[in-house]
Amino acid sequence: PTVAQGPLSTITLQRYLSSLVSSDESLREMEGLMLSIAMACKTISTLVNRAGINQLTGLETDVMGTRSGSQSNNGPNKKNKPKKNIQGEDQKKLDVLSNGVLKNALKFTGKLGLLASEEEDEALLIESALDSRYVAVFDPLDGSSNIDASICTGTIFGVLEDDSVDIKNEYKRNNDDCVRDEDAECVNTMDALLQPGSQLAASGYCMYSSSTILVFTLGGSHPVIGFTLDPQLGEFVLTHPNMRTPKRGSYYSVNEGNSWLWDASIRHYIDKIKRGEGQSKKRYSSRYVGSMVGDVHRTLLYGGIFGNPGDVQHRNGKLRLIYECSPMSFLVEQAGGGSCTSEGKSVLEVVPEGVHQRSTCWLGSIEDVEELKTYLVPE
Ligand code: AHM
Ligand code: MG
Protein backbone atom coordinates (compact mmCIF):
# COMPACT_ATOMS: atom_id res chain seq x y z
CA PRO A 1 0.00 0.00 0.00
CA THR A 2 1.08 3.56 -0.68
CA VAL A 3 2.00 5.46 2.45
CA ALA A 4 2.19 9.24 2.74
CA GLN A 5 5.79 10.37 2.27
CA GLY A 6 7.63 12.71 4.62
CA PRO A 7 9.58 12.70 7.87
CA LEU A 8 7.99 10.10 10.15
CA SER A 9 7.15 12.58 12.89
CA THR A 10 4.99 14.61 10.51
CA ILE A 11 2.83 11.69 9.42
CA THR A 12 -0.17 11.70 11.69
CA LEU A 13 -2.55 8.76 11.92
CA GLN A 14 -5.16 10.78 10.06
CA ARG A 15 -2.75 11.58 7.24
CA TYR A 16 -1.58 7.98 7.01
CA LEU A 17 -5.12 6.62 6.81
CA SER A 18 -6.33 9.18 4.30
CA SER A 19 -3.38 8.38 2.04
CA LEU A 20 -4.40 4.70 2.22
CA VAL A 21 -7.98 5.57 1.30
CA SER A 22 -6.85 7.68 -1.64
CA SER A 23 -5.23 4.58 -3.13
CA ASP A 24 -7.93 2.14 -1.97
CA GLU A 25 -11.43 3.58 -1.60
CA SER A 26 -12.69 0.33 -0.01
CA LEU A 27 -10.82 1.30 3.16
CA ARG A 28 -12.96 4.37 3.80
CA GLU A 29 -15.15 2.74 6.48
CA MET A 30 -12.09 1.26 8.12
CA GLU A 31 -10.52 4.71 8.21
CA GLY A 32 -13.52 6.01 10.18
CA LEU A 33 -13.34 3.08 12.58
CA MET A 34 -9.62 3.42 13.20
CA LEU A 35 -9.95 7.14 13.85
CA SER A 36 -12.72 6.48 16.37
CA ILE A 37 -10.68 3.81 18.11
CA ALA A 38 -7.72 6.21 18.22
CA MET A 39 -9.90 8.96 19.67
CA ALA A 40 -11.17 6.61 22.39
CA CYS A 41 -7.60 5.51 23.14
CA LYS A 42 -6.54 9.15 23.59
CA THR A 43 -9.32 9.60 26.14
CA ILE A 44 -8.43 6.37 27.95
CA SER A 45 -4.78 7.45 27.97
CA THR A 46 -5.75 10.67 29.72
CA LEU A 47 -7.89 8.78 32.23
CA VAL A 48 -5.05 6.36 32.95
CA ASN A 49 -2.51 9.18 33.29
CA ARG A 50 -4.69 11.11 35.70
CA ALA A 51 -6.04 8.10 37.61
CA GLY A 52 -4.22 8.91 40.85
CA ILE A 53 -5.03 12.62 40.68
CA ASN A 54 -8.69 12.16 39.81
CA GLN A 55 -9.21 9.29 42.27
CA LEU A 56 -9.93 6.79 39.57
CA THR A 57 -7.84 4.02 41.10
CA GLY A 58 -9.35 1.04 42.90
CA LEU A 59 -12.34 -1.15 42.39
CA GLU A 60 -15.71 -0.27 40.98
CA THR A 61 -18.22 -1.01 43.69
CA ASP A 62 -21.79 -2.05 43.53
CA VAL A 63 -24.24 -2.31 46.40
CA MET A 64 -24.71 -6.02 47.32
CA GLY A 65 -22.02 -6.97 44.82
CA THR A 66 -24.49 -7.15 41.95
CA ARG A 67 -23.51 -6.85 38.35
CA SER A 68 -24.70 -3.95 36.26
CA GLY A 69 -28.33 -4.18 35.33
CA SER A 70 -29.21 -6.19 38.44
CA GLN A 71 -31.39 -4.76 41.18
CA SER A 72 -29.51 -2.87 43.83
CA ASN A 73 -30.35 -2.27 47.46
CA ASN A 74 -29.33 1.02 48.95
CA GLY A 75 -30.37 0.21 52.50
CA PRO A 76 -28.30 1.69 55.33
CA ASN A 77 -26.69 -1.60 56.42
CA LYS A 78 -25.67 -2.76 52.96
CA LYS A 79 -21.96 -2.63 52.20
CA ASN A 80 -20.59 -1.75 48.80
CA LYS A 81 -18.93 -4.79 47.27
CA PRO A 82 -16.62 -5.00 44.27
CA LYS A 83 -18.54 -5.11 41.03
CA LYS A 84 -17.76 -8.16 38.94
CA ASN A 85 -17.77 -8.82 35.21
CA ILE A 86 -19.51 -11.87 33.79
CA GLN A 87 -16.34 -13.87 34.26
CA GLY A 88 -16.46 -13.25 38.00
CA GLU A 89 -13.48 -10.88 37.98
CA ASP A 90 -13.52 -7.68 40.05
CA GLN A 91 -13.91 -4.64 37.82
CA LYS A 92 -11.70 -1.61 38.40
CA LYS A 93 -13.19 1.86 38.10
CA LEU A 94 -11.05 2.37 35.04
CA ASP A 95 -12.23 -0.89 33.45
CA VAL A 96 -15.78 0.44 33.55
CA LEU A 97 -14.87 3.95 32.40
CA SER A 98 -12.68 2.74 29.54
CA ASN A 99 -15.39 0.36 28.40
CA GLY A 100 -17.88 3.25 28.26
CA VAL A 101 -15.47 5.45 26.30
CA LEU A 102 -14.67 2.81 23.69
CA LYS A 103 -18.23 1.53 23.42
CA ASN A 104 -19.61 5.00 22.79
CA ALA A 105 -16.86 5.94 20.34
CA LEU A 106 -17.56 2.81 18.31
CA LYS A 107 -21.34 3.00 18.56
CA PHE A 108 -21.45 6.53 17.22
CA THR A 109 -19.36 5.74 14.16
CA GLY A 110 -22.56 4.26 12.73
CA LYS A 111 -20.27 1.71 11.09
CA LEU A 112 -20.66 -1.18 13.54
CA GLY A 113 -23.69 -3.37 14.07
CA LEU A 114 -22.30 -5.50 16.86
CA LEU A 115 -19.73 -5.09 19.63
CA ALA A 116 -18.27 -7.47 22.19
CA SER A 117 -16.19 -6.38 25.15
CA GLU A 118 -14.52 -8.09 28.09
CA GLU A 119 -16.52 -5.82 30.37
CA GLU A 120 -19.96 -6.45 28.82
CA ASP A 121 -21.93 -9.52 29.84
CA GLU A 122 -23.24 -10.03 26.34
CA ALA A 123 -22.56 -8.78 22.84
CA LEU A 124 -24.19 -5.44 22.07
CA LEU A 125 -26.37 -5.16 19.04
CA ILE A 126 -26.61 -1.71 17.47
CA GLU A 127 -29.82 -1.91 15.55
CA SER A 128 -29.37 1.45 13.86
CA ALA A 129 -26.24 0.17 12.15
CA LEU A 130 -27.20 -3.39 11.28
CA ASP A 131 -26.28 -2.87 7.66
CA SER A 132 -22.71 -2.05 8.61
CA ARG A 133 -19.88 -4.06 7.18
CA TYR A 134 -17.93 -4.54 10.41
CA VAL A 135 -18.21 -5.86 13.96
CA ALA A 136 -15.68 -5.11 16.71
CA VAL A 137 -14.29 -6.95 19.72
CA PHE A 138 -12.23 -5.34 22.46
CA ASP A 139 -10.72 -5.48 25.89
CA PRO A 140 -10.94 -1.82 26.90
CA LEU A 141 -8.28 -1.87 29.62
CA ASP A 142 -6.21 -4.99 29.68
CA GLY A 143 -3.87 -5.54 32.62
CA SER A 144 -5.94 -3.31 34.86
CA SER A 145 -4.72 -5.16 37.97
CA ASN A 146 -1.53 -3.14 37.39
CA ILE A 147 -3.22 0.23 37.17
CA ASP A 148 -2.99 1.34 40.81
CA ALA A 149 0.79 0.90 40.67
CA SER A 150 1.03 3.00 37.47
CA ILE A 151 2.35 0.01 35.53
CA CYS A 152 1.52 -0.18 31.84
CA THR A 153 -1.91 -1.25 30.63
CA GLY A 154 -3.51 -1.29 27.20
CA THR A 155 -6.55 -1.56 24.98
CA ILE A 156 -6.82 -4.55 22.64
CA PHE A 157 -9.17 -4.56 19.65
CA GLY A 158 -10.16 -6.58 16.62
CA VAL A 159 -12.39 -5.74 13.66
CA LEU A 160 -14.17 -8.47 11.71
CA GLU A 161 -16.17 -8.28 8.53
CA ASP A 162 -19.81 -9.14 8.99
CA ASP A 163 -20.67 -11.31 6.02
CA SER A 164 -24.24 -11.76 7.22
CA VAL A 165 -25.16 -8.13 6.56
CA ASP A 166 -27.42 -8.96 3.61
CA ILE A 167 -29.23 -11.68 5.55
CA LYS A 168 -29.73 -9.32 8.49
CA ASN A 169 -31.16 -6.62 6.31
CA GLU A 170 -33.54 -9.09 4.75
CA TYR A 171 -34.76 -10.11 8.21
CA LYS A 172 -34.95 -6.51 9.28
CA ARG A 173 -37.10 -5.65 6.29
CA ASN A 174 -39.48 -8.52 7.11
CA ASN A 175 -39.64 -8.01 10.82
CA ASP A 176 -37.91 -5.10 12.40
CA ASP A 177 -37.54 -6.78 15.80
CA CYS A 178 -36.31 -10.04 14.45
CA VAL A 179 -32.59 -9.76 14.88
CA ARG A 180 -31.87 -10.97 18.38
CA ASP A 181 -30.04 -14.17 19.19
CA GLU A 182 -32.54 -15.58 21.65
CA ASP A 183 -35.20 -15.83 18.96
CA ALA A 184 -34.46 -19.03 17.08
CA GLU A 185 -36.49 -17.81 14.11
CA CYS A 186 -34.26 -14.81 13.68
CA VAL A 187 -30.89 -14.37 12.11
CA ASN A 188 -28.10 -15.24 14.50
CA THR A 189 -26.22 -11.98 14.82
CA MET A 190 -23.65 -13.64 17.06
CA ASP A 191 -22.17 -15.58 14.17
CA ALA A 192 -20.53 -12.39 12.96
CA LEU A 193 -18.51 -12.28 16.19
CA LEU A 194 -17.71 -15.96 16.47
CA GLN A 195 -15.20 -16.06 13.65
CA PRO A 196 -11.66 -17.40 13.93
CA GLY A 197 -8.84 -14.86 14.19
CA SER A 198 -7.73 -15.64 10.64
CA GLN A 199 -10.81 -13.70 9.48
CA LEU A 200 -9.81 -10.44 11.20
CA ALA A 201 -9.87 -7.38 8.95
CA ALA A 202 -7.82 -5.38 11.45
CA SER A 203 -6.41 -5.78 14.92
CA GLY A 204 -4.24 -3.83 17.28
CA TYR A 205 -3.57 -2.45 20.69
CA CYS A 206 -2.88 0.84 22.37
CA MET A 207 -0.33 0.71 25.18
CA TYR A 208 -0.52 3.23 28.02
CA SER A 209 3.02 3.38 29.35
CA SER A 210 5.90 5.88 29.40
CA SER A 211 4.45 6.69 25.96
CA THR A 212 1.02 5.95 24.57
CA ILE A 213 1.58 3.82 21.48
CA LEU A 214 -1.08 2.63 19.05
CA VAL A 215 -0.03 -0.43 17.04
CA PHE A 216 -2.27 -2.02 14.43
CA THR A 217 -2.50 -3.84 11.15
CA LEU A 218 -5.14 -3.94 8.46
CA GLY A 219 -3.99 -7.45 7.46
CA GLY A 220 -3.37 -8.60 3.88
CA SER A 221 -0.40 -6.75 2.42
CA HIS A 222 -0.54 -4.05 5.11
CA PRO A 223 2.29 -3.82 7.62
CA VAL A 224 2.10 -3.72 11.39
CA ILE A 225 2.51 -0.06 12.11
CA GLY A 226 2.93 2.00 15.27
CA PHE A 227 1.97 5.58 16.14
CA THR A 228 3.04 7.39 19.30
CA LEU A 229 0.79 9.96 20.92
CA ASP A 230 2.57 13.31 20.88
CA PRO A 231 1.19 14.92 24.05
CA GLN A 232 2.03 18.40 22.76
CA LEU A 233 0.19 17.96 19.47
CA GLY A 234 -2.49 15.67 20.89
CA GLU A 235 -2.01 13.54 17.77
CA PHE A 236 -0.76 10.04 17.05
CA VAL A 237 2.35 10.38 14.88
CA LEU A 238 4.02 7.61 12.91
CA THR A 239 7.03 6.23 14.80
CA HIS A 240 7.14 2.54 13.81
CA PRO A 241 6.44 2.27 10.05
CA ASN A 242 6.97 -1.47 9.61
CA MET A 243 7.24 -3.55 12.76
CA ARG A 244 8.78 -6.98 12.28
CA THR A 245 9.09 -9.54 15.07
CA PRO A 246 12.73 -10.69 15.27
CA LYS A 247 13.06 -14.30 14.08
CA ARG A 248 14.56 -15.38 17.39
CA GLY A 249 14.72 -13.72 20.80
CA SER A 250 16.18 -14.45 24.21
CA TYR A 251 13.31 -13.54 26.55
CA TYR A 252 10.50 -15.73 27.80
CA SER A 253 7.42 -14.10 29.27
CA VAL A 254 5.09 -16.28 31.35
CA ASN A 255 3.69 -16.23 34.88
CA GLU A 256 6.21 -18.64 36.35
CA GLY A 257 4.32 -18.67 39.66
CA ASN A 258 2.03 -21.19 37.98
CA SER A 259 4.83 -23.45 36.72
CA TRP A 260 4.12 -26.15 39.32
CA LEU A 261 0.68 -26.53 37.72
CA TRP A 262 1.85 -26.56 34.08
CA ASP A 263 2.04 -29.65 31.93
CA ALA A 264 5.46 -31.29 32.13
CA SER A 265 6.08 -30.51 28.43
CA ILE A 266 5.87 -26.77 29.08
CA ARG A 267 8.01 -26.94 32.21
CA HIS A 268 10.57 -28.88 30.19
CA TYR A 269 10.65 -26.29 27.38
CA ILE A 270 11.07 -23.31 29.73
CA ASP A 271 13.72 -25.17 31.70
CA LYS A 272 15.69 -25.90 28.53
CA ILE A 273 15.68 -22.34 27.17
CA LYS A 274 16.62 -20.73 30.46
CA ARG A 275 19.58 -23.10 30.87
CA GLY A 276 20.83 -22.32 27.34
CA GLU A 277 20.00 -25.86 26.20
CA GLY A 278 17.41 -24.88 23.58
CA GLN A 279 17.99 -24.77 19.81
CA SER A 280 19.71 -21.37 19.93
CA LYS A 281 21.96 -22.40 22.85
CA LYS A 282 21.32 -18.94 24.31
CA ARG A 283 20.32 -18.58 27.95
CA TYR A 284 16.91 -16.91 28.02
CA SER A 285 15.98 -14.26 30.58
CA SER A 286 12.56 -13.80 32.10
CA ARG A 287 10.47 -10.66 31.51
CA TYR A 288 6.88 -10.53 32.70
CA VAL A 289 4.83 -7.40 33.28
CA GLY A 290 1.49 -9.15 33.75
CA SER A 291 -0.08 -6.75 31.24
CA MET A 292 -0.48 -8.60 27.96
CA VAL A 293 -0.15 -5.43 25.91
CA GLY A 294 3.19 -4.54 27.54
CA ASP A 295 4.49 -8.10 27.28
CA VAL A 296 3.42 -8.45 23.64
CA HIS A 297 4.79 -5.02 22.69
CA ARG A 298 8.21 -5.94 24.08
CA THR A 299 8.07 -9.33 22.37
CA LEU A 300 7.21 -7.66 19.06
CA LEU A 301 10.16 -5.28 19.36
CA TYR A 302 12.82 -7.44 21.01
CA GLY A 303 11.71 -10.96 20.12
CA GLY A 304 11.28 -13.99 22.35
CA ILE A 305 8.12 -15.75 23.44
CA PHE A 306 5.07 -14.76 25.47
CA GLY A 307 2.58 -17.30 26.78
CA ASN A 308 -0.47 -17.87 28.88
CA PRO A 309 -0.23 -21.66 28.92
CA GLY A 310 -3.08 -22.90 31.06
CA ASP A 311 -2.53 -25.47 33.75
CA VAL A 312 -4.16 -28.43 35.46
CA GLN A 313 -6.67 -26.14 37.17
CA HIS A 314 -7.37 -23.88 34.18
CA ARG A 315 -6.93 -25.95 31.03
CA ASN A 316 -7.80 -23.01 28.76
CA GLY A 317 -5.65 -20.47 30.59
CA LYS A 318 -6.78 -17.02 31.61
CA LEU A 319 -6.87 -15.05 28.37
CA ARG A 320 -9.96 -14.71 26.22
CA LEU A 321 -9.88 -15.91 22.61
CA ILE A 322 -11.75 -13.28 20.62
CA TYR A 323 -10.56 -10.05 22.19
CA GLU A 324 -7.13 -11.01 23.57
CA CYS A 325 -5.52 -14.08 21.96
CA SER A 326 -6.82 -13.73 18.38
CA PRO A 327 -6.15 -9.99 17.79
CA MET A 328 -2.66 -10.24 19.32
CA SER A 329 -1.79 -13.42 17.41
CA PHE A 330 -3.04 -11.87 14.16
CA LEU A 331 -0.83 -8.84 14.74
CA VAL A 332 2.28 -10.80 15.69
CA GLU A 333 1.87 -13.16 12.73
CA GLN A 334 1.38 -10.18 10.41
CA ALA A 335 4.74 -8.92 11.72
CA GLY A 336 6.41 -12.19 10.73
CA GLY A 337 6.07 -13.91 14.11
CA GLY A 338 4.17 -17.03 15.13
CA SER A 339 1.49 -18.14 17.55
CA CYS A 340 -0.01 -21.38 18.84
CA THR A 341 -2.13 -22.83 21.61
CA SER A 342 -0.69 -25.13 24.29
CA GLU A 343 -1.74 -28.06 22.06
CA GLY A 344 0.34 -26.65 19.21
CA LYS A 345 -2.70 -25.59 17.15
CA SER A 346 -2.86 -22.29 15.33
CA VAL A 347 -4.59 -19.69 17.56
CA LEU A 348 -5.99 -18.06 14.44
CA GLU A 349 -7.81 -21.23 13.39
CA VAL A 350 -9.66 -21.76 16.68
CA VAL A 351 -13.37 -21.16 16.02
CA PRO A 352 -14.95 -19.46 19.04
CA GLU A 353 -18.13 -20.86 20.51
CA GLY A 354 -18.76 -18.01 22.94
CA VAL A 355 -17.84 -14.37 23.32
CA HIS A 356 -15.89 -14.83 26.54
CA GLN A 357 -14.31 -18.18 25.69
CA ARG A 358 -10.80 -18.62 27.05
CA SER A 359 -7.87 -20.04 25.15
CA THR A 360 -4.27 -20.88 25.82
CA CYS A 361 -1.97 -18.75 23.73
CA TRP A 362 1.72 -18.48 22.88
CA LEU A 363 3.12 -15.89 20.52
CA GLY A 364 6.37 -14.27 19.50
CA SER A 365 9.46 -14.93 17.39
CA ILE A 366 8.74 -17.53 14.72
CA GLU A 367 11.73 -19.72 15.59
CA ASP A 368 10.87 -19.63 19.29
CA VAL A 369 7.24 -20.59 18.64
CA GLU A 370 8.33 -23.39 16.29
CA GLU A 371 10.76 -24.67 18.92
CA LEU A 372 8.04 -24.63 21.60
CA LYS A 373 5.74 -26.66 19.32
CA THR A 374 8.25 -29.53 19.26
CA TYR A 375 7.60 -29.97 23.01
CA LEU A 376 3.81 -29.67 22.98
CA VAL A 377 1.54 -32.67 23.13
CA PRO A 378 -1.52 -32.46 20.85
CA GLU A 379 -4.87 -33.11 22.59
P1 AHM B 1 -7.47 -8.65 32.49
O1 AHM B 1 -8.07 -8.61 31.12
O2 AHM B 1 -8.48 -8.92 33.56
O3 AHM B 1 -6.61 -7.46 32.78
O4 AHM B 1 -6.53 -9.95 32.53
C1 AHM B 1 -5.63 -10.17 31.49
C2 AHM B 1 -4.22 -10.00 31.99
C3 AHM B 1 -3.22 -9.97 30.85
O5 AHM B 1 -2.89 -8.65 30.55
C4 AHM B 1 -2.03 -10.68 31.41
O6 AHM B 1 -1.25 -11.31 30.41
C5 AHM B 1 -2.66 -11.67 32.33
O7 AHM B 1 -3.90 -11.13 32.74
C6 AHM B 1 -1.84 -11.89 33.55
O8 AHM B 1 -2.41 -12.88 34.31
P2 AHM B 1 -1.65 -13.40 35.60
O9 AHM B 1 -1.66 -12.29 36.59
O10 AHM B 1 -2.46 -14.59 36.01
O11 AHM B 1 -0.25 -13.76 35.18
MG1 MG C 1 -7.86 -8.52 29.36
UniProtKB/TrEMBL annotation:
Q: Which Pfam families match?
A: FBPase, FBPase_C
Q: Which GO terms describe its cellular component?
A: cytosol
Renumbered to this chain, region (Disordered) spans: 63-89
What cofactors are annotated for this protein? Mg(2+)
Query: What molecular functions are annotated in GO for this chain?
Result: fructose 1,6-bisphosphate 1-phosphatase activity; metal ion binding
What's this protein's name?
A: fructose-bisphosphatase
The cross-references to Gene3D superfamilies, in alphabetical order and at most eight, read: 3.40.190.80, Fructose-1,6-Bisphosphatase, subunit A, domain 1
Q: Which UniProt keywords apply?
A: Carbohydrate metabolism, Hydrolase, Magnesium, Metal-binding
Q: What CDD domains does this protein's entry cite?
A: FBPase (cd00354)
**Family affiliation:** Belongs to the FBPase class 1 family.
**Enzyme Commission numbers on file:** 3.1.3.11
* UniProt xrefs under SUPFAM superfamilies: Carbohydrate phosphatase
Stretches assigned to the Fructose-1-6-bisphosphatase class 1 C-terminal domain:
246-375
Q: Could you tell me what reaction this enzyme catalyses?
A: beta-D-fructose 1,6-bisphosphate + H2O = beta-D-fructose 6-phosphate + phosphate
UniProt-listed PROSITE patterns = FBPASE
Q: How does it assemble?
A: Homotetramer.
Q: In which pathway does it act?
A: Carbohydrate biosynthesis
Q: Which residues form the Fructose-1-6-bisphosphatase class I N-terminal domain?
A: 84-241
Among the record's GO biological process terms, what is one? gluconeogenesis
Tell me the enzyme class: hydrolase
